[in-house]
Amino acid sequence: MSIKLCVFDFDSTLMDGETIDFLAKPLGIQEEVSKITEAAMQGKLDFFESLTKRVRLLKGLDYKDVQAICQNLPYMPGASKCIKTLKDRGIRVVVFSGGFKPATSHAREVLGFDADFSNTLHVKDGKLTGEVGGEMMFDTSKGTMLQTIQRLLHVKPEETMAVGDGANDRSMFAHADLKIAFCAKPILKEAATYCVDEKNLEEIIKFI
Question: Is 11 a catalytic residue?
Fold first, then answer.
């Protein structure tokens, strides 16, 4: 059966790095935040707890700086061509991210995928408050949202591919027959149909 829907993770999959690590840099807390991120992606920390803990550390960051950083993130080699190839084949391309709307929405405009689901950083008086909410807050969020989109588009798991790198991508892998672990953590590779260890998203095309 042919693929009709492709769901990508964003951080360290479509984008080369973790958005929250880039946001932490101006505050001088990149190393602290990065350690929590890595533990969460390895599956050693609950995703919700790790997300809220990291975002609290961003309290006080100017939102204009958030926007500037999110509009200058480095995309993974081959990202644009990969998405164009999928779209040319009539495949819907959606992004799920435990990261943040300013990054995924800008990437949607640049890379041309169909929709993005991510989280929103709370802003008051032009600065981050340290609070976060949204569509991708939990370990189970990607799987739940994938099932919703499959129902809306009348797409079956055997017509779905999912591409990710970390522990919180396991829930979407559970509802996609084609599961690609891209430069991934060991915990996700165990759940994958295929693994790609080269930083080039064009490599995933050959599995469709």
Answer: yes
